[in-house]
Amino acid sequence: MKLRRRTTTSSPLGNLVEAPGGSRKPVNAPRPGPRGWRGPGRGGATYVEAAPEWRATTVQACGLWPFAAGTGSPMTGVPLGRNLVSGATLCCDPISWFQRARLISNPSCFVLSKPGLGKSTVVRRMALGLAGYGTIPMVLGDLKPDYVDLVEALGGQVIRLGRGRGHLNVLDPGEANEAADRLTGTARAAVLADAHGRRTTMVSALLTILRTSPPTDREESILDRALKVLDERSRAHGRTPVLADLLAVIREAPEDVRAVAVDHGRIERYRELTEPLEASLLALLGSGRLGEIFSSPTSHPMRRDRPVVFDVSSINDAETDLQAAALLACWSAGFGAINIANALADAGLEPQRHYFVVLDELWRALRAGRGMVDRVDALTRLNRQGGVGQAMVSHTMSDLMSLPTAEDRAKARGFVERSGMVICGGLPSAEMPMLRSVVGFTRAEEDLLVSWQDPPAWDPDAGAQADPPGRGNFLVKVGGRPGIPVHVALTSVETEKGLHETNARWRVTSRIGASRDQLAALPAHLPATATVSADLPAAAPVSLPADLPASLPAVPDVPALRP
Length: 563
Hints:
Elements: E1 8-11, E2 14-18, E3 24-26, E4 79-83, E5 89-91, H1 94-99, E6 108-112, H2 119-133, E7 136-142, H3 148-153, E8 157-160, H4 176-182, H5 185-211, H6 217-237, H7 243-252, H8 255-261, H9 267-287, E9 308-311, H10 320-346, E10 355-359, H11 362-366, H12 372-381, E11 388-394, H13 397-401, H14 406-418, E12 421-424, H15 432-436, H16 443-452, E13 458-459, E14 464-465, E15 473-477, E16 484-487, H17 492-496, H18 516-520
Helix pairs in contact: 4-5, 5-6, 5-9, 5-10, 6-7, 6-8, 7-9, 12-14
């Protein structure tokens, strides 16, 4: 049998072998795998790096428009952080999502998270960004304080209230009289009526806190009529009334006041009817537990055209009645200024202003006294009509569900239900059933929130605790839509100016018991917060006793210990 020689020909398809009959078929030539040629020196890659990604606006990268893939996170509002899933930037705040993006039906948000995970930092970021958009931040009662540095950096007002620190006159109409002089007709009457009603309500609220029960109908009528008489006299003399003036009018017993007191023409009966009211007002003048904060002229009048924070952090947490009264007074003053700004804007005398009201540590405000839940409930229902966006901050749903009465608990639950968005950080698993009853969460979202509340681990290299795993991580929920997980990263401005610091008092080591010489040896860069008591003696060197055994090596005098 004659053997035929097989010939091989190169081809773009590989090597071709000539088969019997003149046909050619390809031979399976070796090909590189998906990661290159395997083997040493052949260029195979065991790890394929992801393609580099670049971010740019349509102005910077207009030649690439339209983009091949868009972001899955909303880009309208204050830049909050990066999506933990896609890495895309998330822009989020209640005013922008309501006014421009129309993603929510109510310009409000409720923030829930365990302490130390960044709740206040998220709200401060929103306030800072909204200030850049022209919205005015208003913190009506900072109990810690967390927002003083931010408002100072924005060039706003810091109004400090407390015993011996500042006063807020609850009968001060603010800028209402000046605004009324610029208005006419019904607009002018509405501004004056709002100022009168707000002050009457504030006096009644103070009496409620003081007595732990509301004033009677007769007493409220007497207060209303006496305040009208006082306003007429004050405008004639060009001065702002205080609580002492209101008490003087009631004691004077003018005919208008006696008419609503229904004393039947007997002054003795009038004195008998007004005696409890006089005693309560007298307690508000500085002799009662509420002190003199509300009975003196306002120390720093509030302005409606700039950011403001009422710093009430000097009020001790044990003084719940004083905290409640201070918060109510701050809310009354703040929303009174907002009503004046809206009236002037409606008349075309000033531009329309929008305000971002922050109610941080809401659980402390709600527990401070009777009437607080109703007051917050009224604020949350009227924010759209007043051009006000607001952020309410608390730790857990349990804080809202621990109020004393079922009525208050139902109203507090409504705060979360009516919020346009709910922003949740790390929360314990016990919170999930209560939270699920208000906002729809999937099992995966609940597991994510629970994982963020884990405690920090110990860092052996740094010799200290590492940051908690969930610090800065939040889930943004709007209705039944899937939540957006985001990590809030601090900018250089926030870190350099300390606008995120809520534990400032713990950043300096305690120096209690240190001597003069020890404190003098401290590095010069430490803040000058460590003081030396006048009766501290100078540190003396410590010597070892002379009767130590001879076997011990000689030890020199021990110098003063370094901190």
